[in-house]
Amino acid sequence: MLSLGRFSFGVGDRFAHQASAQLRAFQKLAERGIEVVPVWNKSNREHTFIGSEPSSVREAAQEAVRALGWRGAWHVDADHIQRQTVDRFLDPSDFFTIDVADSIGRAPDTDALASFLDRHPELIGTVEIGGIAEPLQMTLEQVERTARKYLSAVQEAGEIYRYVVERKGGEGNIVAEVSMDETDAPQTPPELLVILAAMADQGIRAQTIAPKFTGRFNKGVDYVGDLVQFEKEYRDDLAVIAHAIGAYGLPGNLKLSVHSGSDKFSLYPIIRRASAETGAGFHIKTAGTTWLEEIIGLAEAGGEGLELAREIYAYAYEHLDEFTAPYASVIDIDSSKLPVPAEVASWEGAKLASSVRHIPTNPDFNPHVRQLLHVSFKVAAKQGRRYLDLLEANADIVGKQVTENIYDRHMAPLFLD
Ligand SMILES: [Zn+2]
Fold first, then answer.
1. pTM exceeds cut of 0.85
2. 4 CA to middle of ligand 1, Å?
3. Is residue 6 classed exposed, middle or buried when 0-12, 13-18 and 19+ CB atoms within 10 A define those classes?
4. 364 and which of 7, 26, 354, 405 could share a cystine (Cβ 3.0–4.6 Å)?
């Protein structure tokens, strides 16, 4: 039975060259007695942009596990899969993030809605939930409205879940996550309770659930939103999950998955505190920001590496609209704050590295440059062998950036004091 541990952390490795450097961060944490399960995630969209196959993620992870002698659990996440995209992920993946956000708001059929409401009278009225000061209050109309909004999405999650389970030879062979984060409106804690009840009805043995939280989760930069509100929602969600595990027989290790888009530094202390106080676990999924550490490492390396880093920036700058358009909802770039390529061409490697490396207190840090480069990985992909050869030639300096980024900036605030 694949049972996901209390703490897990998802990393992306766009060019499949940093799995060992990433795993090293988990190993450093394990040396301090903190067990965090590494999960390598890569979405269909990323594979398509890079021209890679899901099997390459498993191969790179497997090789890192062997090279470092990692004895703990690890997983390969078919990230944000849907029914149309899951097939090529079936073989190499054992973690499936079932994305049903597109079906939120699709009207369920009348019978399904009626039978859900029939089956769940306990949702109507006052629901006492341990850990929440005010009991949840939902009228029949509110439960019905919520079910109308989410029932189709959960049914679809059930279909994909059963499809995957059957092909993987049983429920015990996968870790399933249901994700609803890629949508406009956050799910409130009462809505989450309705969703979990519906998931139980569908027989989905999910071990993680990724709701959309309040606030903006831009790629590669910090959270933008109301921290007090986030903390309240996050803690209420934890309480709702604990309640639903008992009430609906969901897996006892079911936990929140935060699709962070990486670098949500201001949320980490909130998540750590909530976890310490409640005993809850969490999964933090990061985006493919490891590739930015590759750029940082190449810039630091100087010579041809620096040359390529400058070229990639120049190309990205000239194609700003093209590269940012698909990510419009998850980036905020002020183009007036982007240095012109001629200026960047005069920078030393250390200065270019500092402008990208996410240390907000460094005066050279530029979140606009960072976000632009983050979405411009296709430029590096187009370089093909030239890019990969430089990564390999500078593996030490690049790997050092990758490990430090994960360990110092993410794991330390999440797991250490
Ligand atoms: Zn997501």
1. yes
2. 18
3. middle
4. 354
Residue at 281: amino acid letter: G
Cα 198 to chain center, whole Å?
Answer: 23
Write down the residue that tokens 């899951």 correspond to. Answer: 86
What are 362-373's pLDDT values in tens digits? 999 999 999 999
CA angle in degrees (0–180, nearest 5) for 142-192-283: 170
The answer to whether the CB of 180 falls within 8 A of the CB of 101 is yes
Q: pLDDT per residue over 379-405, tens digit each?
A: 999 999 999 999 999 999 999 999 999
CA of 284 to the centre of ligand 1 (A): 10
> How far, in Å, from the CA of 370 to the mean position of ligand 1?
20
Helices in 249-384 by DSSP H: which ranges? 268-278, 290-301, 303-318, 320-324, 341-345, 349-356, 367-374, 377-383
* Centroid of ligand 1 to alpha carbon of 223 (angstroms): 15
Distance CA 4, CA 21 (A): 22
- Determine the Cα–Cα distance for residues 272 and 302; give it in Å rounded to an integer: 38
**CA gap 344, 165 in Å, rounded:** 50
Ion ligand 1: residues, CB within 5 A, are 181, 259
Distance 282 CA to ligand 1 centre (A): 15
| Spacing, Cα 181 to ligand 1 middle (Å) | 5
- Structural domains of the chain in order of their starting residue, each with its CATH number: 7-288 (3.20.20.70), 291-402 (no CATH)
Give the count of beta carbons closer than 10 Å to the beta carbon of residue 172. Answer: 11
Q: What is the pLDDT of residue 119?
A: 98
Distance from residue 255's CA to the centre of ligand 1 (Å): 15
How many Å apart are CA 369 and CA 344, to the nearest integer? 10
CA of residue 261 to ligand 1 center, whole Å: 8
Ligand 1 centroid to Cα of residue 330, in Å, is 11
80 alpha carbon – ligand 1 mean position (Å): 7
347: left (phi over 0), alpha (psi -120 to 50) or beta: beta
Ligand 1 center to 123 CA (angstroms): 28
pLDDT band at 417 (very low <50, low <70, confident <90, very high): confident
User: How far does residue 210's CA lie from ligand 1's centre (Å)?
Assistant: 7
Instruction: Say if strands 75-81 and 7-11 run parallel, antiparallel, or are unpaired.
Output: unpaired
Q: How far is the CA of 328 from the centre of ligand 1 (A)?
A: 15
